Amino acid sequence: MARRFGGRFSPDAAAADPRAAAVDPVRIKAAGSRGRLLYVPPFVLVVTSLGAGPAVLVTALAGAGVLTLAAWLLQEGLRAQAAYDARKIARRPVLPRKMLASALTGLGVALAALTGDSDIMGSALYGLAALALHVAAFGIDPLADKQVAGLDRFQQDRVARVVDEAEAHLTQTAAAIASLNDRRLIARVAGFQRVARRMIATVEADPRDLTGARRYLGVYLMGARDATVKFVEITRRGPDAAARAKYEALLTDLEQNFAARTEKMLVDDHADMDIEINVLRDRLQREGVSLKTKGNE
Fold it and tell me: pTM, whole model, 2 decimals?
């Protein structure tokens, strides 16, 4: 199949090289920061209602609770949209968090208005205005799956499932190693994750690479996650230099093999993968990680 090649000195290299399109989890997490200020109004509402009597205070507490939930949903919705926008193939969010946040913001503002001098009709109008402003400021959730032209829906769904599974394994691996509060290990895992996400980006750029990458993005990322969890359990019982050295060596092996496989995919190399697969399988099994899947048990 034909491929477009890019490099450091090629025109528009960042756009041409699919490795540059890897999703940055830090940037996605930061996308939710736009909604942080919306946690302030619920606090102000409760504080200003403390001396206004029990009925007003209860209404204010209800409004504050609704507004707090709306702020949290907005943050999650902004992060989900950032991840959606960063990918070439993506499913629309199952839960429309941003739209729910807009509706809850309208309801919360209406309840807040009731704590003042506004009647029910006036409070409803305030709520509608708040809902409209929220939608204008933050937009709505994606309503359709993001697809690649010329690729059938079945294949795109396969890619989306594999990518979602791979990202889940990477997230769980990062969470497990972060619990040790070891900056060096966190950085090592982050380096491996960057390499793995380059493979994900390559598959998204050309989903026909899925066949060659599926085992890497499924079985081997799951194995890396399980090895990380096992290493964390050992380390929590006490420092173990041998276990640490083996774990770091495993990360190095995985990183090198993922990087090599990604490069082969980029130059359309159809060499047999059996040797690489067996090397990774043996390495993970030596670490005590089972590679059996439900379909192979």
Answer: 0.57
